[in-house]
Write a structure and sequence with these properties.
Blueprint: H1 3-17, E1 21-26, H2 33-43, H3 48-61, E2 63-69, H4 71-83, E3 87-90
Helix pairs in contact: 2-3
GO biological process, one term: protein catabolic process
Keywords: Hydrolase, Protease
InterPro entries: ClpS_core (IPR003769), Ribosomal_bL12_C/ClpS-like (IPR014719)
Length: 91
């Protein structure tokens, strides 16, 4: 095995080990854009621009990753989204 192949193998292994969890927000027909934006700013500490962009992506694509991190960091944030009536899950 060449040095380059070994480095690539090590890099791919490191990527698998360092894979972070994601909160995925799903579209619904209930919540307004303003509610989604306000909730993302509160629960995920998004800037107004980030929250607005995520809400637009969710509306047109059906879902959007809104936060990445460790499971322990994401659980309370996802709970805040769910408590606000949004559809979200950690993947």
């Amino acid at each position: 095995m060449s040095t380059q192949e070994k480095q690539l193998e090590d890099l791919l292994l490191a990527e698998k080990v360092n894979k972070q969890n994601e909160i995925v927000l799903y579209n619904d027909d209930v919540n307004t854009f303003d509610h989604v934006i306000d909730t993302l700013m509160y629960a995920c500490e998004h800037t107004p621009e980030q929250a607005e962009q995520c809400s637009i992506i969710v509306h047109y694509k059906g879902k959007c990753t809104v936060k990445t991190g460790s499971l322990s960091e994401l659980k309370p944030r996802c709970s805040m989204l769910l408590d606000a009536g949004l559809s979200a899950e950690i993947v």
